[in-house]
Design a protein that fits this description.
The chain is mainly alpha-helical. It folds into 4 domains: about 90 residues, no CATH class; about 80 residues, Annexin V, domain 1; about 45 residues; about 100 residues, Annexin V, domain 1 (Orthogonal Bundle). The chain has 21 helices and 2 strands. Strands 1-2 form a two-stranded parallel sheet. It is elongated, with a radius of gyration of 34 Å.
């Protein structure tokens, strides 16, 4: 009946009359009768989501009716019930519309929590989550959409990302989607936002997570701060229980011993300047016992004057106890990781064997 409502022709409200027969009634007039039944029973209706032209047709037909006899009313209701039995019942397609329908039914604070949980806050742009998706995940989703919807999604991606997605798709499907972009010139923002919301709801990126980092990164970060002996004990225990997890954690760990293999020669001066002088001297002095290769790598890749100054301070410091020595080395590696995180230096990625 909604389709008939949209397609019905408007009547002028000046032609107000009594309706005594269902024959010849338009879909808009039948809808007006049903709406009046709901309003008369104390219910409420929101027709604001209809197109403006459909709202105008409905209002015109509603205003044209003075009275409907019982037989006509029963016939309209029976027709409506028959349509419901035939069509079944559909719920909103995306979560944004679902939660919109629940507003007024649930407590406002609960609705707000649900929107946050599903990544549908009022200020949330679903496309920000979509552009963070892996190209393979996007390509899989596009395979389930029409070429037109695929064109809209592809158009919202970065050009480089869109190209990666196309490379993962079958040639014919990718071609159809790119050609469909020609039909997206006058698309209003609302349907694009709704499509983005629906796609983002299916993405693993928008799934609420308690931790931002992966289990491997979190375990590696904890062991980075542990002493060498303690770290080795934990890794040995990991390998006994889950060799694959242990291998990933070991690869993610960055310790003082990893500096020559992970930090390029040109980046050594960057972290040396950022580490407090006292911590650097203590770390180098303590590392001489078992990590002389690392000490030489650091001193050989800085200015000769700075290296000479550090060597003198190392001699003056003498022996360093285990606990403060390992704490100093941990401070050095923490500074290196922080500089890598902010882009000041880049850690070399170890290649798989």
């Amino acid at each position: 009946m909604a389709d008939e409502l949209t397609a019905a022709q408007p009547m002028r409200p000046s032609a107000r009359h009594h309706i005594t027969d269902v024959t010849g009634l338009s879909g808009s007039q039948k809808a007006a009768i049903l709406v009046q039944m709901i309003l008369a029973d104390g219910g409420k209706m929101d027709l604001g989501s209809l197109e403006p032209a459909a709202q105008m047709r409905f209002a015109t037909d509603y205003a044209s009716i003075v009275r409907v006899n019982r037989a006509t009313l029963d016939a309209v209701v029976a027709e409506f019930e028959m349509q419901l039995e035939t069509a079944g019942l559909e719920f909103p397609e995306n979560l944004d519309d679902v939660l919109g329908n629940m507003e007024g039914l649930l407590a406002p604070d609960l609705t707000h929590q649900l929107r946050d949980r599903f990544g549908l806050g009022t200020d949330t742009d679903p496309w920000r989550a979509i552009v963070e998706m892996e190209p393979a995940e996007i390509a899989k989703m596009l395979g389930l959409e029409s070429a037109y919807v695929g064109a809209l999604i592809l158009s919202k991606l970065r050009p480089e990302q869109a190209n990666e997605v196309l490379e993962l798709m079958e040639k014919d499907l990718g071609t159809a989607i790119v050609m469909a972009i020609a039909n997206t010139g006058a698309v209003p923002p609302d349907p694009v936002h709704r499509i983005g919301t629906r796609v983002a709801a299916k993405s693993t990126v928008t799934t609420p997570k308690a931790f931002a980092d992966t289990p491997v990164i979190r375990a590696a970060s904890i062991l980075n701060a542990a002493s060498g002996v303690q770290r080795d004990e934990y890794l040995a225990a990991f390998e006994a229980k889950d060799e694959s997890f242990a291998k990933q954690v070991r690869k993610a760990i960055f310790t003082f011993a990893d500096i020559p293999g992970r930090v390029s020669e040109t980046d050594v001066p960057k972290f040396v300047r950022a580490v407090p002088a006292e911590a650097m001297v203590m770390a180098l002095t303590y590392a001489q016992e078992e990590l002389q290769v690392v000490v030489d790598y650091i001193l050989d890749n800085m200015s000769k004057r700075m290296a000479a100054s550090l060597r003198e301070e190392m001699v003056d410091l003498g022996n360093v106890a285990t606990k403060p020595g390992e704490a100093a080395m941990s401070q050095v590696t923490s500074v290196i990781r922080a500089l890598a995180d902010d882009g000041t230096l880049k850690l070399v990625v170890e290649e798989e064997e």
